[in-house]
């Protein structure tokens, strides 16, 4: 379970954090927590964009190879199937089954479970959006608005 954003602003100042926590909780609830989670954000000069990367190595996928899922707040979910060596990427692409940037965490977990257990992309379609998506977008807009003391560009 993710505790605090590593090396970032405090969680209460980071409007994306609740989504990342919800996805992490859904994965843990299915018994498929990733072996590694990487979270980063670009600096203010690059729009404060958030990314999350989830990694399952071959030991967590039944020996087929590894799985990586990546979320970026502007493009949504992408995947990579990797070989037994971490740097051996077999195939990458968008997770077509997840049709929303803020896909429902349970849908993300279902897609991840399918990929981790079968090492294949799921065939279903998931259109549900996370119930806090609109509230999070509003918080992100407020977070990115320059403070009155900041010069505008």
For this entry, give a set of tags.
globular, 3 helices, 153 residues, 5-stranded antiparallel β-sheet, alpha+beta
Q: Could you characterize what this model shows?
A:
- The longest helix is centred in the last third of the chain and has 14 residues, at 105-118.
- By secondary structure, the protein is of the alpha+beta class.
- The radius of gyration is 16 Å and the shape is globular.
- The protein has helices at 17-29, 105-118, 133-144, and strands spanning 36-41, 50-56, 66-72, 76-82, 89-94.
- It is built from three helices and five strands, in the order H-E-E-E-E-E-H-H.
- 25% of the residues lie in helices and 22% in strands.
- A five-stranded antiparallel β-sheet has the order 1-2-3-4-5, covered by helices on one side.
Order of helices and strands: HEEEEEHH
Trace the largest sheet across and list its strands. Answer: 1-2-3-4-5
Q: Helical region count? A: 3
SS class: alpha+beta
Poorly predicted residue ranges? none
The tally of strands reads 5
- Provide mean pLDDT, rounded: 84
Distance from N terminus to C terminus (CA atoms, Å) equals: 39 Å
How large is the share of residues in beta strands? 15-25%
Assembly state of the chains shown: single chain
Overall shape: globular
Largest sheet: 5 strands, antiparallel
Radius of gyration: 16 Å
Helix content: 25-40%
